[in-house]
Amino acid sequence: MNTENRRADIYSVSFVKPSQCSMIMLYNKGIAIVNGIFTKINGLQKINFDENSDWLGISTTQKFNAIASDTSQSNRIYLESLCGIPLILKVDYSNGVSKVIGSIDRPILLTFSIGGNPTAYTLTFQRIDKGSAPIYQSFS
Questions:
Q1: How many domains does the chain have?
Q2: pLDDT of residue 140
Q3: What is the maximum span of the chain, computed from C-alpha positions, in angstroms?
Q4: pLDDT tens digits for 74-87?
Q5: pLDDT at 6
Q6: Domain range spanning residue 33?
Q7: Cα gap 39→56, rounded to integer Å
Q8: Residue 113's pLDDT is what?
Q9: What is the DSSP secondary structure assignment for residue 42, as one 8-state letter?
């Protein structure tokens, strides 16, 4: 992640299932072109996505954490339904940049937890990938 994105806040997270999209990865340009309909995950607050490359630049540790303050039963069921299934995420930053996390070949798997005071629902994942999350572009 570049310095400009470190100062930007994530204001939106969307997902698409790998089976419902097509992707072209332009690794040399850090771009992912995605043809698919992303579904916004509503009600997320305190969204964090961090990437740290190893000193050789061979692999990148990616960590995602998002808290939902809506602790209704229907929101719990919805958030739990997103867990344990392969997904590709799109995170939208306040500086206008959107990044794609995951790919058709290497999707992410979210986990769900309940905790805190006041109680909140949390979606997380952590993984090691071969590079940083690319910038999102649509086919259109």
A1: 1
A2: 62
A3: 45
A4: 999 999 999 999 99
A5: 60
A6: 3-138
A7: 35
A8: 96
A9: T
Indicate the DSSP class of residue 38: -
Report the relative pairing of strands 135-138 and 31-36 from DSSP bridges: parallel
Do 19 and 123 form a contact (C-beta atoms < 8 A)? no
pLDDT greater than 60 at residue 112: yes
Nearest to 138 by CA among 31, 7, 43: 31
Give the tokens for residue 2: 């570049």
Of 22, 43, 23, nearest in space to 133 by CA:
23
- Give SS3 for 58: coil
One-letter amino acid identity for 22? S
Q: Can you list the alpha helix ranges (DSSP code H) found in the chain?
A: 3-7, 73-81
Residue 131 near residue 60, CB atoms below 8 Å: yes
Both tokens assigned to 75: 């929101």
Distances (CA, A) of 55 to 58, 59, 62, 77, 130: 8, 9, 15, 40, 13
Average pLDDT of the residues of the chain: 90
Q: pTM for this one?
A: 0.89
64 pLDDT more than 70 = yes
Report the candidate in 57, 48, 36 with the shortest Cα–Cα distance to residue 91: 48
Amino acid at the residue 29: K
